[in-house]
Amino acid sequence: TINSVKIEDYVKFSIQMLEYDTDLLNQHNKEFGTKAIHGIHIYNFENLTFAKATHKTVMELALHFCRMFQDNYPERVKRIYHINASFYHSLIMSITKSFLASPLLKKILCFGTDGWKQELLKDIDADVLPAFLGGNRTDPDGNPMCNTFIIHGQIVPERYYLCNSEKRLFNSPDAKKITVSRFSKEEKTFKVKEADSYLEWAFETMNKDIEFSVYFKDKSLENSKKEYVELVPKQRINTFYEPEEGLLKCEKVGICKYA
């Protein structure tokens, strides 16, 4: 997955799924007249390899997701099951659990290949739990995988990898090329000569990610030592798959700076 989607898009998708869970709870309460506020999450780590568990991007995503979940959705979950967890799973957990709050940690139950089906049935009715997870529920044709209402994860074909996409700006004759070495930075300033002008940018990297931010200083403060005002907060962006593009309206005359 990490080879076929930008990190920020993966995060957005995760948020969308969490919000979808909330909508399902609200729909369930409306339909059955209940007041359920908690859901149960089941994560299957059956195909987790050492390479995946120790991949830098995977680790960063795991940390980012855990922080986001803890800050915004901690009370939305009753229990979190990690099933088919191998030794490699413990590598990720050893890092993520170091900053998770105790109440959330207590909700996480980790299992190897055995024992989890019985535990799931303590929280989920057998007629609701899919058969492949130890319950009785199947598709109308008897398929225990319940493909009619569950979308199972699959290996993404290499033809969808972002690395196969063409470098659009690299081949553009109008694009300016600069070299930014590790632990260094490059700044570009632009004068905003008219109020309500638009500042537009597009950039890409040959490899790795890069930090990017936009600052502004009013023309009346141009010669002063006063700091620039941050317009676009500093963020680390992966742009070696496709260009990062943006547009900003400059309401005042002054100086804009990319950094």
From TrEMBL:
Q: Name one GO cellular component term.
A: cytoplasm
From what superkingdom does this record's organism come? Answer: Eukaryota
Family matches, as InterPro entries: CRAL-TRIO_dom (IPR001251), CRAL-TRIO_dom_sf (IPR036865), GOLD_dom_sf (IPR036598), SEC14/CRAL-TRIO_domain (IPR051064)
Residue ranges occupied by any CRAL-TRIO domain in the UniProt entry: 1-141
Identify the Pfam families for this entry.
Answer: CRAL_TRIO
> What name appears for this protein in its UniProt entry?
SEC14-like protein 2
Q: Which organism is it from?
A: Nephila pilipes
Tell me the lineage of the source organism: Eukaryota, Metazoa, Ecdysozoa, Arthropoda, Chelicerata
